[in-house]
Inverse folding.
């Protein structure tokens, strides 16, 4: 069972690869590409492989047992 989603605040438009780094799910863009290609990431419970996917307020990103909720400000 996974823990409750931790809210991560972002300003304006954020793409999935950037968000994974902001949330601390990965250390670099290269690692983001690897975990996405390996199918380790879901957005709103759907597998996602696109680093450039634009996220919206309220989206839930999950990797393994950790999850993060996007909170767009500004």
């Amino acid at each position: 069972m996974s823990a409750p989603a931790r809210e991560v605040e972002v300003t304006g438009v954020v793409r999935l690869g950037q968000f994974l780094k902001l949330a601390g799910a990965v250390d670099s863009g290269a690692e983001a590409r690897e975990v996405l290609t390996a199918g380790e990431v879901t957005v709103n419970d759907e597998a996602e492989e696109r680093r450039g996917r634009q996220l919206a307020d309220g989206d839930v990103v999950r990797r393994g047992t950790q999850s993060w909720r996007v909170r767009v400000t500004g």
